[in-house]
Amino acid sequence: MPPSVAPSPEELDRLLARLRPLIVEILQDWEIPEGEAEKLMSEVLARLTYRWSRIPDPEHWVLMALEKEARNYSARSRKEPGDE
Amino acid sequence: MSKRRPDPKTPACDLPGYEQDLQRVSERAHGRLMEILQEVNAAAALLGELLAKVGPERSAMVGTEPVRLHGLALCGLLEARSREAWFADPVRAVELAELAVEVSDRLDTQHYGTAIVEDARALAWAYLGNAYQVASDLRRAEAALSRAEEHHRQGDEDELTRAQILSFQASLYNAQGRFEEAARLLDKAIAVYRDAKALHLEGRALIKKATAFGYAGKFKQAERLVRQGLSRINVLEEPQLLVAARHNLVWYLTEGGHHEEAQKALEETRGLYLGLAERINLVRLRWLEGRIAFGLGRLDEAETALREARDAFIERGIGFDAALVSLHLAAVYAKKGDAAEMKRLAAEMVPIFESRDLHPEALAALTVFRQAAAAEEVTLGLVERMATYLQRARRNPEMRFESEGRP
Questions:
Q1: B316: CB partners within 8 A, 6+ apart
Q2: Residues sharing a CB contact under 8 Å with residue B45, sequence separation 6 or more, in sequence order
Q3: Which residues in chain A are closer than 8 Å to B111, comparing Cβ atoms?
Q4: Shortest CB distance from A1 goes to which of B112, B116, B237?
Q5: With 0-12 CB in 10 A as exposed, 13-18 as middle and 19+ as buried, what is A12?
Q6: Rounded to whole angstroms, how far apart are CA atoms B229 and B214?
Q7: How is chain B split into domains, by residue range?
């Protein structure tokens, strides 16, 4: 059976609720400031919803994508001249 | 998950809380979700409108605001349509994939964000590359897949998109006869799918890797891989993949000389062929039956089955398969030592020469066969070498048949 094109709002809420502790852990581990966390997560969720039909394990995907975003953010912020 | 903490000395109690951020994210995601659902509905209507137009009218429509703002879902639909047309109508598959590229090119980065747009472009180019490959235009296929890689690097380098590009590149390598390289690329794709817990896609990639080994004549490895792939695929998601994989399994067993096992596997698969109710699959089934009967020494039975399969391919204008079955039929006559039937077979190949899907190098190889038949010089070895060549050269118009009479 082909997967649905997008999650339902309830599905998305349940996913976020289940992942909340792990999401917070990733954000803390990479010391993502408040406000930035919202941007990173919004980006990840936008991509998740657009790609929903081809992501076999959305929970796993969200954690991997957030980890990547957080890592990139951390690398970018360390490169900023003011930090050097 | 990998090591995350950039500075392990940072005490956890000083770390910020994210409750408000996550609450806002959730609200925003709901809004985005509604937009996407509207976009999906709009895309289906846009697809109909777009396909109803031709030439400049179609191009003009691609540049309009509805397409730029709803085009992402439209790209997905065009890619799905292109995929459906790969084997039945390769020219149409190219046309649809070209349209997906054109639409992806116009996507609004402000609306979607650069990462999503670049990923959509990467996928559209990848689909175009594969459509070219299926249509035997290997140079364009290579160029399109390079474009896919470039766009993938400019986006968020989504791993599943990467695996899709790798998988299409592997198909191109298979068509070019670069089987080991194809298998190596598929190993990378398989690792991505495994990591993403994409069991069905992992299974599909394993089946494709089996094809690379099958083309290379490594039937034992091909058999092992296709069995692994079969254990992972979701039959409900892609029933045709199951039939194709089971068909390939029987083929590897046959070509590997395990004819009785092949016969048993074929009996287990017969119902699937009938279930799909596609006439062309039944022709392929008949072809397999002929090959197995040949392997078991039942030459008359093999001749009947192969003749039926050959006639059906000729009737449908599928020249490549008609030529391959003819060579398998020639193997039957070579084994029987029947030079008169061999000559007749060669004479009956005229309609195959008129097929549009045979490239000049393949035609040249078949001319060698006809000449050998006329001179009563066809051996089982020559027939088998030619059949192997034709299988490998199906999508590679530049691959040549090396015979003693040809430099």
A1: B280, B283
A2: none
A3: none
A4: B237
A5: buried
A6: 14
A7: 38-157, 166-233
- Structural fold of domain B166-233: 1.25.40
B166-233 shares the fold of B38-157: yes
Least Cα separation, residue A84 to chain B (angstroms): 16
CA nearest to A22 within chain B? B1
Model's pTM, two decimal places?
0.84
Q: Which CATH architecture has domain B38-157?
A: Alpha Horseshoe (1.25)
Assign B198 to helix, strand or coil: coil
| Interatomic CA distance for residues A77 and B10, integer angstroms | 17
List pLDDT tens digits, range B193-228.
999 999 999 999 999 999 999 999 999 999 999 999
ipTM of the prediction: 0.76
Q: How far is CA B148 from CA B71, B82, B164, in A?
A: 18, 16, 10
Residue-wise pLDDT for B227-273, tens only, equals 999 999 998 888 889 999 999 999 999 999 999 999 999 999 999 88
Instruction: Note whether B202 and B232 are within 8 A (CB).
Output: yes
Structural domain boundaries in chain A: 9-78
Tokens 């396909």 locate to B51
Q: Give the 3-state secondary structure of residue B218.
A: coil
